[in-house]
Amino acid sequence: MAETKNIYISRTIAATSDDSKVKTGVSAIELRNGDIVEIGSKTNGVYALTAVKDATSATAKYGIVYNADVVTSGNYRGLSDDPRDVSFKPGTTVNFYIPEAFDEIAVTVVAGTASGAKYLVPTTGGTGYSYATEVTTEKLVYEITGAKFVSVGSERIPTIEAVCAKA
């Protein structure tokens, strides 16, 4: 159930000195790099990850999937030159990080209408990003800072650039 064939780029991610930012999790749904996941309970050092239940929840904790770009095709696992080919099957252990204010990202797929939008927020019921004209949550909010491109082979793909305003 990975939301999209999104390309996710971490432009600047704040480092913490105690390794508390990067975690390991597993989900019953398919995931992709850049997917926003809701963090659940921890068992044997691994967190349960789910799609975002309610993006306006005051108690939810969010993470962003950021794992090695390994493509699984049949029984073969290898590298891909197209990050849109990367997905993690249900039950696959993945790395994710806890977003912090001032983290800078770029994504290629956002749900909704870009016209008048100032923010990116988690998509309720999914793992993707949605445009927003106003902030309706105190949790994860990215402020849109511009638009650029990323090249994949000879293809130029538009990106939405954003900085984390609330985490």
Characterization of the model:
The structure is a single chain. By secondary structure, this protein is mainly β. The chain has one domain. Helices cover 0% and strands 45% of the residues. The protein has no helices and 13 strands. The strands form three sheets. A six-stranded antiparallel beta sheet has the order 1-9-13-12-10-11, with no helix packed on it. A five-stranded mixed beta barrel has the order 2-4-3-5-8. A two-stranded antiparallel sheet has the order 6-7. A hairpin with a 2-residue loop joins β6 and β7. It is globular, with a radius of gyration of 15 Å. The protein starts with 7 loop residues before the first strand and ends with a strand. The model has no long low-confidence stretch (mean pLDDT 84).
Structure characteristics:
single chain, 6-stranded antiparallel sheet
